[in-house]
Write a structure and sequence with these properties.
The chain folds into three domains: 86 residues, no CATH class; 118 residues, Distorted Sandwich (Glucose Permease (Domain IIA)); 92 residues, Sandwich (Immunoglobulin-like). The two termini are 31 Å apart. It has 346 residues and is mainly beta. It is 7% helix and 32% strand. The strands form four sheets. Strands 1, 3, 4, 5, 7, 9 and 10 form a seven-stranded antiparallel β-sheet that branches. A four-stranded antiparallel β-sheet has the order 13-12-15-16, with no helix packed on it. The chain is built from three helices and 17 strands. The structure holds zinc ion (ZN). The site of zinc ion has 4 residues, from loops. Zinc ion binds next to loops.
Length: 346
């Protein structure tokens, strides 16, 4: 039995219940077979000794006996691995609140027409989520943090691909300990674009739900809305974004579906239509896959599509490629959890 198989069994034993939907057993590269048996997304301890390291550092057969001896102490965990907080993010990580309070008719959920990573038939691949609201609606911090930037991007390319892209933008730095990681700290950023006003300054500490600005349509925007991003790494790097829908806490009774639409050789395919139909209500929700060469999959899920705000329940999933249904399955979406599917298409 391989070390990996053993590891999977250990995880299953720890998890106890094999339920539908959430975290895969191994967050490595997308898999080319059926979706793995999924384990409830308890946070698996990531102590270095338990890490299912790839066995690539085993001595090669070409090595001479003397080289074998010097090459053996490879069970020692790679220090780079320990230091990389992205690899310590395991399972669901709904660490953010919504940037609006759903009171007085204010909308607190994203527009489905232009999801993260997609082009909505001709736009740039989207690096965030859009939440439409009337001009001037109060925008709130999604988590505690410190204001990294508050201002315009008229004269310098600060966060986007060009000047005057976000118009007025607030960026908040969040410094938090990754739950159940043994103390690994993560720095990440949330970005709020197209604001008509901002109420904070760089260096200000902010608390979750604090009023930080107001909805506008400054910069490259059609209609008043908030553009929300999550970035890990360099806050100025437009390519450092991840899908906020996997970070924003679902409402009670709702969950998220993430998936990977892949060819047999494990390449991600853009612009593939994914449709999910509720078996309870027959309501259909749809999206298309990311332009994966221009945006990132999640540190844990490695997805190329997400459909958020799904009422918990059972769904029929259809993946349409080259004018036909190329993959279909059934998935259970659980309240406040992420379900994950692999769809291998030809
Ligand atoms: Zn946007």
């Amino acid at each position: 039995m391989s070390r990996l198989s053993l590891w999977v069994i250990v995880i299953l034993a720890i998890a106890g219940i094999v339920a539908c939907g959430v975290a895969e057993a191994e967050p490595a590269a997308p898999q080319t077979d059926a979706p793995p048996p999924l384990v409830r997304a308890i946070f698996v301890q990531t102590t270095p000794s338990a890490t299912p390291q790839p066995t690539t550092d085993a001595p090669t057969t070409e090595a001479t006996p003397t080289l074998d001896i010097t090459a053996t102490p490879t069970i020692t965990p790679n220090p780079t691995w320990i230091a990389d907080p992205i690899k310590a993010i395991r399972g669901d990580h709904f660490w953010l609140a919504r940037p609006f309070l759903a009171i007085n008719g204010i909308r607190d959920y994203a527009e489905r027409a232009y999801p993260y990573g997609t082009t909505a038939l001709g736009l740039q691949p989207h690096h965030g989520m859009d939440i439409p609201n009337p001009y001037g609606t109060t925008v709130r911090a999604v988590a505690n943090g410190t204001v990294f930037y508050a201002g315009d991007d008229l004269n310098d390319i600060v966060f986007g691909p060009q000047t005057n892209f976000y118009g007025n933008v607030v960026v908040i730095e969040h410094h938090m300990e990754i739950p159940n990681s043994g103390g690994i700290m993560l720095d990440f950023y949330t970005l709020y674009g197209h604001l008509s006003a901002f109420y904070v300054r760089a260096g200000d500490p902010v608390e979750q739900f604090q009023e930080i600005g107001a909805v506008g349509q400054e910069g490259v925007a059609i209609g008043p809305h908030l553009h929300l991003e999550v970035r890990i790494g360099d806050p100025y790097d437009y390519n450092a974004t991840y899908n906020p829908s996997l970070w924003v806490q679902p409402w009670s009774g709702y969950g998220v579906l993430a998936g990977r639409v892949l060819l047999k050789d494990s390449t991600y395919v853009p612009d593939v239509e994914v449709e999910v139909i509720s078996q309870d209500t027959q309501r259909t929700y749809s999206t298309v896959t990311y332009h994966y060469d221009q945006v990132n999959g999640d540190p844990w899920f490695h997805e190329n599509f997400v459909i958020e705000d799904l009422p918990a329940g059972r769904y029929d999933v259809r993946v349409k490629y080259l004018g036909r249904i190329a993959y279909q399955t059934t998935v259970d979406v659980l309240s406040e959890r992420t379900a994950l599917i692999n769809a291998i298409i030809e």
